Amino acid sequence: MRPLLPVVFAAMLLLAGCVAPLQTDGGVSAAGSDDPEVPPSISVSGTGTASADADLALVSVSVTALEADAESARARVAEDSRALFEALTDAGVDTDEAVRTTAFRISPEYDFREGGRELLGYRAVHAYEVEVSPEQAGTVIDAAVGAVSGDSDGEDGIVVDGVQYTLSEETRAEVRAEALEKAVDAARADADTVAGAADVSVAGVRTISVGADVDSFPQPRFAAEAADSGSTVLQPGPVEVTATVTISYDVE
Q1: Quick one: fold of 56-166?
Q2: What is the helix (H) or strand (E) element at residue 159, kind and residue range?
Q3: What Pfam families is this protein classified in (predicted)?
Q4: Longest CA span, the chain
């Protein structure tokens, strides 16, 4: 709850003719002016949060290989990437539209020992992001792991870097609009409270500014694998969007 006494005291002083703005820690300020043509005002910050179920999943996977030379590492990753794309296509993923490269590198890898280093070979990594529906995320993981098994010592193969559940542009726009409405309502409620305590009333909006949005992405939970298929099952939570506005109201 915001402390009202400091705000009320500030509003009374300023409405009586004090020219310096006073502000509370609660995001509410009141200001007056020597110019009779400029009415006093109250500035308020409001925050609103809205949420929706994720309708998009971004699965990050990497194909990696360690070989004696750079060309061999590149060729091995290219071969495994073809296998990955074939498996994704068989799983119903449109690889032309849903898959994009996020990183690619080939670099020497060393074993550092006391007094020097030993070249182990060249590491090639091709990282992809696969954009699918939330229901397909587990299928993508299973397809990737099944297509690129790697070698026995774990130097090559597939790496699942993570899954991010988010909102499509259309859904996010709807959720953001709801969050902004709540933020404006919260700001107006604070302005009415402060104005009432100062024995004035809100006359209208002078300025409005919108702060940066903050999205809260759910971390997927791994559910018990299905007994009949052993498939990966993920359970995402809702995605939250928080909006902030700062509104300056004229008072009378």
Answers
A1: Alpha-Beta Plaits (3.30.70)
A2: strand 157-166
A3: SIMPL
A4: 83
Q: Which SS3 state, helix, strand or coil, does residue 38 take?
A: coil
Phi, psi of 55 (to 5 degrees): -120, 15
Distance CA 129, CA 99 (A): 6
189 beta partners: none
Kindly state the tokens that stand for 145. 């792991």
Assigned CATH topology for domain 4-53+169-251: Translation Initiation Factor IF3 (3.30.110)
Gap between the Cα atoms of 133 and 167, Å rounded:
10
- Nearest-angstrom CA–CA distance, 14 and 28: 13
Going residue by residue through the chain, which has 252 residues, state the pLDDT in tens, using 9 for 90 and above. 344 434 333 333 333 333 333 333 345 555 555 555 667 899 999 999 999 999 999 999 999 999 999 999 999 999 999 999 999 999 999 999 999 999 999 999 998 887 788 899 999 999 999 999 999 999 999 999 999 876 655 568 999 999 999 999 999 999 999 999 999 999 999 999 999 999 999 988 999 999 988 887 665 544 434 434 578 888 888 999 999 999 999 998
CB-based contacts of 75, cutoff 8 Å, min separation 6 = none
155 token code pair: 């130097």
Given a contact cutoff of 8 angstroms between Cβ atoms, the answer to whether 99 and 82 are in contact is no
Q: What's the full length of the chain, in residues?
A: 252
Is residue 49 within a helix (H) or strand (E), and if so which, with residue range?
strand 41-53
Residue 122 CA to residue 209 CA, distance in Å, equals 52
Q: What percent of the chain has pLDDT over 70?
A: 77
